[in-house]
Amino acid sequence: MNDLSTTAQAMDKAADEAAEVLKVLANPSRLRILCALLPGERCVGELEEILGASQSYVSGQLARMRSEGLVSCDRDGRTIRYKLADPRISPILERLYDVFCPEHVKLDLSQSVNA
């Protein structure tokens, strides 16, 4: 196998991975959930309030993103707190935030929600 073939295979693999991430980001609700998790961990109730969506809908979207490896969760007693799991997602979300979010809807990304 030559260098060009190896490079093409690596590019194919990277493009496939990027396309899978972009599929998840293409859903506005999932994108909003990920943006809400950018500053730090949140529980489902907090995400419900931010999105104005039902608990079952938010939980379903989180389950999908967990299966994709984009979010993970920690249990704290009866509360499950979700956070970004894939470190490649934060810079993508931050850039989308800078480009698309008007100032009046931006979360303060410089502070953790747990502070």
Automatic annotation (TrEMBL):
InterPro entries: ArsR-like_HTH, HTH_ArsR_DNA-bd_dom, HTH_MetalResp_TranReg, WH-like_DNA-bd_sf, WH_DNA-bd_sf. It comes from the Bacteria. CDD domains: HTH_ARSR (cd00090). Keywords: DNA-binding, Transcription, Transcription regulation. SUPFAM superfamilies: Winged helix' DNA-binding domain. Residues 10-104 form the HTH arsR-type domain. PANTHER family: HTH-TYPE TRANSCRIPTIONAL REGULATOR YGAV-RELATED, TRANSCRIPTIONAL REGULATOR, ARSR FAMILY. This is Winged helix-turn-helix transcriptional regulator.
